[in-house]
Amino acid sequence: MSREPIIRVKDLHYSFREGEGMKEVLHGVSADFYPGEIVIIMGPSGSGKTTFLKLLGGLRTVQKGSIEIDGQLLEKGRKKDLVSVRRKIGFIFQNHHLIASLSVCQNVMMPLSFNPRETAATARPQALDILKQVGLADHVNKKPSQLSGGQKQRVAIARALVHNPRIVLADEPTASLDGKTGREVVDHIQRLAKQSGATILLVTHDSRILDVADRLIELEDGVLNSDPPIEG
Ligand SMILES: Nc1ncnc2c1ncn2[C@@H]1O[C@H](COP(=O)(O)OP(=O)(O)OP(=O)(O)O)[C@@H](O)[C@H]1O
Q1: CATH of 7-226, one of 3.40.50.300, 1.20.81.30, 3.90.850.10, 1.10.10.10
Q2: pTM
Q3: Ligand 1 centre distance from Cα of residue 168 (Å)
Q4: Hey, which of 50, 52, 94 would you mutate to test ligand 1's pocket, going by the most ligand atoms within 8 Å of its Cβ?
Q5: Which residue in 48, 50, 114, 219 could disulfide with 43, CB within 3.0 to 4.6 Å?
């Protein structure tokens, strides 16, 4: 594993407006994440895990401290940089955000459509290939509403990984799934990410999937505690 971090976070603070004032939820988080590693971020509800992932993905603006992704600083007001950083990232969220009016295959083609070098003719075979890898070859023309929860989550994984992102940010990807389906979903994320060498940051409360992690970190009250021991 390369020792040059792909994500560097330094003294990151973040506050939400609350009534007349501000409530700080991240109190100076610093961490480095390396190419190819799977890191699980745990922590009590409300400790700031989702806020942290959204900041890393450029979905919230850095207020204080810094985030550097692949050598590029995420800064306020630099929209062009944000767009290029987001292209390096795949997002997997708990409620998958699939587009209901599009087919499974069209949903997975979406991230490729932002690349001017891709056309429908080049994107479709890539989408079909990754859908096959997550076991959905027979469902490519269906609408998301025709799929089970686990199948929808596998579509979300395929969509997050189809453009070979350097980084995958996954927020509770197994939360709405039963134990067996959750396990399968995580195994897919792990296998596809290891094939491509992507860095995975995965927020979860699900203790059954901790073994996929190369490293566990804990956010507690907006502060990061690194590397608690893996139990069991
Ligand atoms: N849009 C918002 N406006 C105001 N406060 C918010 C907003 N989003 C989150 N918060 C607050 O920030 C804190 C951190 O929230 P966050 O969702 O990051 O926590 P979390 O660790 O992901 O929680 P959970 O495990 O329950 O998903 C919480 O106190 C939450 O109420």
Answers
A1: 3.40.50.300
A2: 0.88
A3: 21
A4: 50
A5: 219
